[in-house]
Amino acid sequence: MSVVTPISSRSTPEAGGDPTIGRAFLGVKDAAAYLGLSPRTLYVWRHRRQGPPSFRMGAHGRVTYRLDALDAWIREQEQADSRSNPALNPVSAAPQRRVGYSATA
To answer: How far apart are CA 94 and CA 20, in angstroms?
Structure first.
């Protein structure tokens, strides 16, 4: 799996760096490469209304992703994962008592 480098530390396209830098919008193939996924995965997620937000743009209605929306979506995924967000770790949660349950028989 490839590691996504923060935008601020990437090289410019003119310097032979990542060609997605300097663009605000990415097509499916570029967005998939940016996320380290296959384009097919993005198509399936779009069909299921999952994954990062996308929209159609241009005369041919090509599926497009905003680069800043992809970064925001990545941050949301990190916060939703209990391994990255200790507040969501079920082991650290206080035990809950069942409603209407009596401990005596």
So the answer is: 45
How many beta carbons lie within 10 A of that of residue 76, not counting itself?
11
Q: What is the pLDDT of residues 57-89, one digit of tens each?
A: 988 999 999 999 999 999 998 888 777 777 777
With beta carbons less than 8 A apart as the criterion, state whether 70 and 62 touch.
no
Q: What torsion, rounded to 10 degrees, do the Cα atoms 23, 29, 35, 40 define?
A: 150
For residue 105, give every residue at least 6 positions away whose Cβ sits within 8 Å of its Cβ, in sequence order, or none. Answer: none
- Which amino acid makes up residue 26? L
Residue type, 18: D
In the DSSP assignment, the letter for residue 103 is S
Residue at 99: amino acid letter: V
Q: Are 35 and 44 in contact (CB under 8 A)?
A: no
pTM over 0.70: no
Distance CA(95)–CA(101), nearest Å, equals 14
